[in-house]
User: Fold these one by one.
Assistant:
Number 1:
Amino acid sequence: MPRSTHKPDQSQDRLFASEQASADFRFDAAVARVFPDMIRRSVPGYTTIIPMIEVITDQYAQPGSHCYDLGCSLGASTLAMRHGIADRHCTLVGVDNSPDMIERAEHYIALDDHPLPVSLRCEDILQTDLQTASVTTLNFTLQFVPPRHRNALLERIASATLPGGVLILSEKIRFESDSEQETQTRLHHEFKRANGYSDLEISQKRSALERVLLPETLAEHQQRLEKCGFSEVMVWYQCFNFVSMLAIKSS
Ligand SMILES: C[S@@+](CC[C@H](N)C(=O)[O-])C[C@H]1O[C@@H](n2cnc3c(N)ncnc32)[C@H](O)[C@@H]1O
Ligand SMILES: O=C(O)C(=O)C[C@]1(C(=O)O)C=C[C@@H](O)C=C1
């Protein structure tokens, strides 16, 4: 009998499949390698949110302004912004502090045949320079920023945003009501199960994220966005405990 030539798919997320000592989740080389598969199978609505970032960017990108994708990972949200900007003359910047993510993002961006340049910065979004912004995206990034730094970051984004400009903020949220928290978490875990994750994978990833992904309530997000200088805040998408908001600066 010939030996099987079947090779495991290196791009499939099996990172939590075998029993392991709990360590904090990090955006390292192993995560970067499987990230497209991981985020699609873990975040309900991710495959809807990405194309809608293009639609929203198309509505709000102002010629001559900057557009920022903060925590761009492999550039999925950056590319959606690039296509939304189309032929307007904007400066598109993707920022991530994981060198493993930025290295792979360079590759994905080069494969996307489009004339608008993308400038990638391997920097901390808490430090990166922001100016004359019309569209800024934080697609599942703020949740990883330590809570004590979130206010200053959003103030900096709001003050760099031009009148009529927007912030697209997607986050995992928690709920005030224990019963809703329990139900929405169960539904999220069912989504992961339906996407082929085992109970062991779900529980080990949950432990790894416990100290690094710190969700807040929708009310906390909305109040802070308004306090930081956005005049209108709305939820444009929600699936279970994952939401995306649009925060608009008045024109
Ligand atoms: C869930 S991923 C974002 C997914 C991506 N926006 C997308 O739509 O595919 C979060 C990213 O934020 C980055 N990140 C977290 N904290 C950061 C910080 N302080 N500065 C820069 N990047 C950060 C991580 O390295 C990671 O790549
Ligand atoms: O909350 C979870 O269980 C997740 O796996 C979510 C999440 C995220 O929201 O960013 C966590 C880490 C990875 O970036 C992919 C997905």
Note: The longest helix spans residues 178-194.
Number 2:
Amino acid sequence: MADGPNHQTQPWPGPSSRQPLDLHSTTRSPGEQQCDFAGPFSPGKRGRKNPNQPPILAMASRGGGARRTRPNVLVTGTPGTGKTTTCSLLADAVDLRHINIGDLVREKSLHDGWDEELECHIINEDLVCDELEDMMGEGGILVDYHGCDFFPERWFDLVVVLQTDNSILHDRLTSRGYMGAKLTNNIECEIFQMLLEEARESYKEEIVMPLRSDNVEDISRNVGTLTEWINNWRPSRS
Ligand SMILES: Nc1ncnc2c1ncn2[C@@H]1O[C@H](COP(=O)(O)OP(=O)(O)O)[C@@H](O)[C@H]1O
């Protein structure tokens, strides 16, 4: 699912040739729509914490985890923080299936067309969720996306938020061809830790794991940490 260069495990894959994800969501208000930018989005809409939901239903909605024999892990973060690189290495290490949502949307046309103004695809979140539902129920999936609030909460056992120093991220995005508002928006997204906030609003805080991703050593350490976590994971008995 990931691009060629990021499939390598050794040595360090080097600069990525992949293109920007170029997706935004129809559920976000016009002021919030950004290309490759996870903005200050509204609280989630599907399967998320719902204060009006009776406790017993909330427990049942987490029951999907009990059916899984392998965990599902979401790796999120601002574009350029290293999600695809980390997921590619991790998927090889632990034999999870890596799903890059940007690639999936383009391959299966899970979008509502092209936004001329923002120069990006308009992701159809419902189509994405429908496409993934069955495989998420089976477990063993590593999801890679620069947003996290539209997935059902019950899907994930761990939500990793990669974070990168602003100046390092600036260089990575510039070398990817980002400029102008697209560059600024993504850097601001990182400065204000929007993905971490979105993750904490959308999932139980104890399953949200922020990890630094500034350099090669960070990637190696993160892959090691996540490999250990995944290998030690056991299905819930509840
Ligand atoms: N921790 C890191 N250290 C050094 N380079 C990195 C790191 N993480 C990512 N990169 C590089 O930054 C670029 C973007 O990485 P990528 O994995 O595509 O990010 P994302 O999937 O979050 O958009 C790639 O050229 C990759 O090699």
Note: Confidence is low (pLDDT under 50) at residues 1-22, 26-64.
Number 3:
Amino acid sequence: MESKKEKTFKFVVVGGGIAGVTCVEQLSSQFASEDVALITAGPHIKAVTNYKQVSRRLEEFDVEEKPSSVLEEKYSNLTIIHSAVKSLRTHTHCVETADGRVFGYEKLCICSGARPKLLTQENPHVLGIRDTDSAQEFQKRLSTAKRIVVVGNGGIALELVYEVRRCEVIWAVKDKAIGNTFFDAGAAQFLIPSLEGDKEQAAAPCKRQRFTTEEPAPDASGSALGPDWHRGIELQGQTPKPDTGSWPVYVQLTNGETFGCDFVVSATGVVPNTEPFLHGNNFLLADDGGLQVDDHMMTSEPDVYAAGDVCSACWEHSPLWQQMGLWTQARQMGWYAGRCMAADVLSEPIDLDFCFELFSHVTKFFNYKVVLLGKFNAQGLGSNHELLVRCTKGQEYVKVVLSGGRMVGAVLIGETDLEETFENLILNQMDLTAYGEELLNPDIDIEDYFD
Ligand SMILES: Cc1cc2nc3c(=O)[nH]c(=O)nc-3n(C[C@H](O)[C@H](O)[C@H](O)COP(=O)(O)OP(=O)(O)OC[C@H]3O[C@@H](n4cnc5c(N)ncnc54)[C@H](O)[C@@H]3O)c2cc1C
Ligand SMILES: NC(=O)C1=CN([C@@H]2O[C@H](COP(=O)(O)OP(=O)(O)OC[C@H]3O[C@@H](n4cnc5c(N)ncnc54)[C@H](OP(=O)(O)O)[C@@H]3O)[C@@H](O)[C@H]2O)C=CC1
């Protein structure tokens, strides 16, 4: 492959999702006179727009799919190659693309994302949702569906059961409460009425959900969708009719029930897209199949970095941070990987970025603003923690996780206006023992309290 090299770039980034684009922008701007390449399988790239720093650590932004020419116009040293990488030779520092071209690199960053981990492979009645194509396929199939089964209890399932209209949705959940990847049972309880509310009934007179609490028995192309992916696409089925007794597919659950449906959405997590890079190389993989990266986003292969959903952060984490497959983390990792690659080339030292100090995520579920901070579900704390909860039905749910009298995490649902104060309390690790439950007393203006 070495002899066929068409061109050698100083930096090559693989993947036009948010991690890859952020990384390549960082490198192209810092090294304006060096050749940089972005190799991506899809025709479009993802761009961060309307970036807003909500507080010291919380950020919000929109993500837009754009033609890649937008990037090439912005950076004259950037070349975009539209083809999938089919193999990598780390010992000769080159990649081969599906269209047979070979490119050399000095430093490479793999940002190839992840793909849905489907319940069953190659069953035409089981769909995953990841990119624009799969979302469109879902929309098309939904338009003629009377009943679907959604399997999984994470972000995608939460969004779907709320957004789908005029179609019976059977949500198969193996946990005791909904939304296990984001919420505890208390928060889940707070959110449940939103699924049964009058507002929904008015918009979708035929919408019905049925919950079950047992799981059923039993090629990545574009970038992952992101915030508000369902806005602007009609997620509407056909009005449910009486069960005719004949469905395209049947799902048997471990609680013994069987449901027929038009199709099944497998919202059961993702697997990192690593295959094209593994053969012939010695990448260390984490338990989740991601490329292991150290605190400089470096994989176990020399001059190869990784960022976003494809990688697993294997440095010793801050006690207040954990990795999740999220838009924000893809951006932060892509940006930091670019800076680490630059520091390496310039032989400059670089410290782990402060964004990895505290986990923070702002999103929306069931039309509520949701802010998650630190060890929001007491992850890894065992019994060594206490919880304070304040809840006003239909308005807000506030949960604080304390360990040794110090705040280590929080879940804020609704317009609580507490995120900045709590973020500061978590970061400064102040001993809050003296305040006890007063911490969540709604009659106290907590901001003034700690100023
Ligand atoms: C339906 C849905 C809703 C979501 N909602 C949210 C949300 O509200 N908030 C949030 O924070 N996160 C959300 N996420 C998660 C978020 O989208 C991902 O964590 C994030 O997009 C990961 O970015 P990435 O750049 O690592 O990977 P991706 O966006 O998956 O990009 C990977 C890129 O690599 C390219 N690629 C793959 N293989 C190759 C190859 N061999 N050669 C060349 N190119 C390749 C792909 O074409 C793509 O351009 C959602 C995800 C989904 C699926
Ligand atoms: N607003 C947001 O922030 C959103 C973020 N996302 C992100 O996009 C990515 C993909 O989302 P999603 O697919 O929902 O993945 P998630 O990882 O969020 O959730 C997967 C869910 O499926 C469950 N599960 C896994 N295997 C099975 C099985 N065999 N049977 C039944 N249930 C199973 C998991 O349970 P268990 O945990 O017990 O394994 C978990 O509840 C995630 O990284 C997610 O964080 C997606 C949508 C919205």
Note: The mean pLDDT is 89.
